[in-house]
Amino acid sequence: MADKLKIVLGTSNPHKVFEINEIAKDYNVEFILPDCNNFDPDENGLTFEENAEIKAKEASRVSKNGNYFMADDSGLCVDYLKGGPGIHSARYDTTPEKRIEKLLDALKDDNKRTAHFVCALCLCDKEGKVLHREKGIVEGKIAYSKKGSNGFGYDPVFLVENGNRTMAELTEKEKNTLSHRGRALKSMLEWLKVNFKI
Ligand code: IMP
Question: What structural domains does the chain harbor?
Answer without folding.
Answer: 5-196 (3.90.950.10)
